[in-house]
UniProtKB/TrEMBL annotation:
Organism: Carboxylicivirga mesophila
Protein's UniProt name: RagB/SusD family nutrient uptake outer membrane protein
This protein's record includes keyword Oxidoreductase: no
Matching Pfam families: SusD-like_3, SusD_RagB
Highest taxon, organism lineage: Bacteria
Membrane-spanning segments: none
Alphabetized UniProt keyword annotations: Cell outer membrane, Membrane, Signal
Length: 574
């Protein structure tokens, strides 16, 4: 084997091996001692460990931004923990030297190692007792390698793409082979379009070598197609293609180009044809690691989400505080927005009654019942600032989504539960299709005969959520593309909230700076005691103003990379 001066940061420092855990067969890498390059490429477990390292770097929870959800840097929520990374982000304390969203170094480390695997790890024997199974396993590993490379390229594009001083939108330097340090330092950033195409190409290669899903059975050798929860599949590759194409067609990166929207719609529909109809929602929908909703995910047994976000009365920190802005975005159960006085049936005196079922699965509000406790958000209640200044909600709301009622934080009776981090959920593909098809052809058109309109896709999402009537969506669709766009954006907001999409969606839609800096609103709940009874008065309040600058529609390139050579140019404004 040739010896080169590779730009390797982590490969020979950490080596990971695969361990199966019980009946779930969920693999989890474990750190081993250092190994030489010769040992890595001569021992199958060590070689495969390089891909396991790439899997391990994918987050296993949503609140990985200094312990917060990225939604807390949007109009969806805020955090009661001052000084945290998202707090600095939304306050404008974001720079090329301090970037809570920086993935540049970590992603490139994985891409370099994956390229090493592609060049070396597919030439060794993994199953010495059966050449056919060995060949099949190497094919699967190849597919995984290309998917993981696409995934980390996507992380770079999502967080670091932006325009240079001349306005050309750039991505990252594309690495498709092993480079020496001298070679790599001379590479410039590729264009955004070239990066998107590379991601799509890698996904195509991955899909050609991977199964649509992993099966199990006595007739299937475990080396090639056992129930490997968390491994990449061809379906995951299709989902990543859909997401990348949707972003590429979005106003921040394109100039009202119907062909790009049409491509995004076709790629979303190709994935929908594989996944089929949306599965139903049950009580464990957001905590079931085996949910049919999931295309690809990681999971873990813990109670850290609850410890951070349970209300004070349940011994939590109450950290994530959904905004009144998000609360008002949820329609009524009949599908009409609360602003529609004529049709919605919304009653300001009873603001939490008769709402979209997703509202109750997402928000804990005053009077909500959770874990047999009634949530008291009043100024004199157990969750108030008076009772617990550091753990009180700033908005009058706590997070319900992802919170498992089976978790207990009480000392001496603590209990954990499984939580998943979904790289892709099936509903995202329907939302992708609805957005792209509407922009390409309008709400009701299907010129390519795909068998689905934008309105059909939105109605599928809303119907699955529990909104039985299509009347509102039908009315909006009849008003045309612009009106239906607002509905699609709102559906995406409430369906994918606290899954770290909103931050990027607002930017790729090229929203106004005023929308990025929308005042976060909440509600003050006051207890009024009389001789007759006790009532509660809800008063709207302004909670916080965000301070994003115009250049913050794009993230920065790390300053250390810009000064490393003259080839990596910074995004405009940073």
């Amino acid at each position: 084997m040739k010896t080169k001066n590779y730009n390797i940061t982590s490969l020979f420092l950490i080596l990971l091996v695969v361990l199966a855990s019980g009946c779930s067969d969920y693999f989890e890498p474990e750190i081993d001692k250092n190994r030489t390059e010769e040992q890595i490429w001569s021992i199958p477990d060590y070689a495969e460990g390089i891909l396991m390292a790439a899997y391990k770097e994918i987050p296993d929870m949503y609140n990985t931004y200094g312990g917060d959800f990225l939604d807390c840097a949007t109009d969806n929520a805020t955090s009661n923990r001052y000084g945290a990374s998202v707090d600095k982000l939304r306050a404008g304390g974001w720079s090329s030297n301090y970037n809570p969203l920086d993935v540049w170094g970590a992603a490139f480390n994985q891409i370099r190692n994956i390229n090493l695997f592609i060049e070396n790890g597919l030439d060794i024997t993994y199953v010495d007792y059966n050449k056919e199974i060995d060949s099949a396993k190497k094919a699967r590993l190849k597919g995984e390698a290309f998917f993981l490379r696409a995934w980390y390229q996507w992380q770079l594009l999502q967080n670091h793409a932006g325009p240079d001083e001349q306005g050309a939108v750039l991505g990252y330097p594309i690495l498709t082979r092993v480079y020496t340090q001298d070679e790599e330092v001379k590479l410039a950033r590729n264009t955004y379009a070239e990066c998107v195409q590379q991601i799509l190409n890698d996904c195509d290669t991955a899909a050609a070598y991977l199964p649509l899903e992993y099966m199990e059975g006595d007739e299937i050798p475990e080396e090639i197609n056992d129930n490997q929860i968390g491994r990449a599949t061809a379906t995951a590759a299709l989902a990543l293609k859909s997401r990348a194409a949707l972003y590429a067609a979005s106003p921040l990166f394109a100039n009202n180009e119907p062909d790009k929207w049409a491509t995004a719609a076709q790629l979303a529909k190709a994935a929908i044809d594989v996944i089929g109809a949306l599965p139903s929602i049950d009580a464990k929908f957001y905590n079931d690691e085996n949910s049919p909703e999931l295309i690809m995910r990681k999971y873990g047994l813990n109670r850290s989400l609850e410890n951070a976000n349970f209300p004070v009365v349940l011994f939590g920190q109450g950290r994530t505080n959904p905004s009144q802005n998000l609360v008002d975005a949820f329609p009524m159960a009949n599908g009409y927005p609360i602003s529609d006085d004529l049709n919605s049936g919304y009653d300001e005196s009873m603001p939490y009654e008769g709402r979209d079922p997703r509202f109750y699965r997402t928000i804990l509000f005053h009077g909500a019942i959770f874990k047999d406790s009634t949530i008291d958000m009043s100024t004199t209640g157990l969750n108030s600032e008076m009772a617990s200044p550091e753990r009180a909600s700033r908005t009058g709301y706590f997070l319900r989504k992802w919170m498992s009622p089976d978790v207990n934080l009480e000392v001496g009776n603590a209990k954990s539960d499984n939580h998943y981090f979904a790289l892709f959920r099936k509903v995202e593909l329907y939302l992708n299709y609805a957005e792209a098809a509407n922009e390409a052809w309008g709400p009701d058109a299907d010129p390519l005969g795909l068998g689905l309109t934008a309105k059909d896709a939105i109605n599928a999402v809303r119907n699955r959520a529990g909104i039985g009537s299509t009347a509102y969506a039908d009315n909006v669709a009849s008003d045309g593309v612009d009106a239906f766009r607002s509905l699609v954006h709102n559906e995406r907001r409430i369906e994918l909230c606290f899954e770290n999409h909103r931050f990027y969606d607002l930017r790729r839609w090229n929203s106004s700076l005023e929308q990025l800096n929308t005042t976060i609103k909440g509600v003050k709940v006051e207890r009024i005691v009389s001789d007759v009874d006790t009532t509660f008065q809800l008063t709207p309040i302004d909670v916080e103003n965000y301070q994003y600058g115009q250049h913050m529609f794009y993230g920065p390139i790390p300053f250390s990379e810009v000064i490393k050579s003259g080839e990596i140019v910074q995004n405009k404004g940073w």
